[in-house]
Amino acid sequence: MALSAALPDIDEKSVADEARALEARYGELDSRLIIELAIDHLFNEEIAVVSSFGAESAVLLHLISEVDHTTPVIFLDTGKHFSATLAHRDRLIEELGLTDVRNIQPLQSSLKREDPFGALSMTDKDRCCYIRKVEPMARAVAPYRAWMTGRKQFQASTRAALPVFEAVGSRIRINPLARWQSSDLTAYMAAHGLPAHPLVEKGYRSIGCMPCTRPVEDGEDQRAGRWAGTDKTECGIHLTGLTDTLTNISLTES
Ligand code: SF4
Q1: 102 alpha carbon to ligand 1 midpoint, in Å?
Q2: Which of 83, 124, 226, 227 is least surrounded, with the fewest CB atoms within 10 Å of its CB?
Q3: Ligand 1 mean position to 36 CA, how many Å?
Q4: Architecture of domain 7-245
């Protein structure tokens, strides 16, 4: 089906207004209520979850599974993950009973053309993230009106003002855990017997692709180990580049 046909044209300004109204009305609600509201009332079939199956991803996925374990979960299978991440993904799918996890991979044509030796991350991380994360992410969320993430304000200074509801072009992104603290996550995982990613005990507190992730020291931001030694702080799937890519996909995939 044409992606542009899957999502009717929606005015970006009205979506921005909608996100602000949702934030004002529901942004302070309990996370579980926000998820219920989003899945059962606001977006129904038109919402997905994006998960990295990273350090604390079990918390959001557990909440989702309790509301509706059939909710689509998008995993960006970049081809550069730690094997421990893939094992953790499989364990959580099994333990939480998630029935619709989608492993979204980069386009083979892009890999062949731009990263034939799998070493692009060493020379051009932005481009590597684009072909392995941003384009696949845009492709994966294009059919939905909204998606949820596990991002939190405490993770980095760049996320300090993260709202629960935000507009991404003509779609809504929901961050139900935005106001959670690290201690809240730890307590929730303990209370529900949820497994941490196996690399957490080795000092990894935010876990992305293997070539671009290192453990963090005490006192560092949780995300300080991502693209360490460079100016890069985000892969782009949460930034404006995604909006542009989504727009291009909607315009061209018809
Ligand atoms: Fe490539 Fe590193 Fe980005 Fe992964 S995080 S897509 S390996 S640059």
Answers
A1: 19
A2: 83
A3: 33
A4: 3-Layer(aba) Sandwich (3.40)
